[in-house]
């Protein structure tokens, strides 16, 4: 689960499977062909596309305070965007990573600069499975 200070839970594994599906479909439907041809590479483009799509999803989830009940709608919108504008997602990832390398962003979250190219404004923390604690006798887990 991904969470921030507001304790918004993010179903990381579930979303990872769905983004993998989106990336494979985008590749099969030739949405990534132009970028693959431009770079003369396939696997690195698909990897970057996956990361860019996940980055966008995390941003939407955090800024719009989505919950698991919103996930179907969020994924549907994300899939449309990913197939329609893959270059836009990839460019956002490039800008984000450039900020990380210059110390303007943290690796897990936030742009520290302002402006229209700085949509990621809060640090994220990840909770591993080992950090989960059982909740009473109900068999549910708390983070």
Automatic annotation (TrEMBL):
The UniProt record lists the ELMO domain at 1-86
**InterPro entries, per this entry?**
ELMO_dom, ELMO_domain-containing
Protein name, UniProt field: ELMO domain containing 3
Matching entries from PANTHER family are given as: ELMO DOMAIN-CONTAINING PROTEIN 3 (PTHR12771:SF2), ENGULFMENT AND CELL MOTILITY (PTHR12771)
Question: What organism does the UniProt record list as the source?
Answer: Prolemur simus
Query: A single Pfam family, by name?
Result: ELMO_CED12
**Gene this protein is translated from:** ELMOD3
């Amino acid at each position: 689960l991904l969470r921030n200070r507001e304790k918004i839970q993010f179903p990381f594994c579930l979303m990872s499977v769905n983004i993998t599906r989106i990336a494979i479909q985008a590749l099969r439907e030739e949405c990534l062909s132009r970028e693959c041809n431009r770079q003369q590479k396939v696997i690195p483009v698909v990897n970057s596309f996956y990361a860019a799509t996940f980055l966008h999803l995390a941003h939407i989830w955090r800024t719009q305070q989505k919950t698991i009940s919103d996930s179907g709608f969020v994924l549907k919108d994300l899939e449309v965007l990913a197939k329609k504008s893959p270059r836009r997602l990839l460019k956002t990832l490039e800008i984000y990573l450039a900020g990380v390398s210059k110390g303007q962003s943290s690796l897990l979250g936030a742009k520290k600069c302002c402006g229209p190219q700085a949509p990621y404004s809060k640090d994220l923390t990840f909770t591993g499975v080992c950090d989960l604690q059982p909740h009473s006798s109900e068999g549910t887990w708390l983070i």
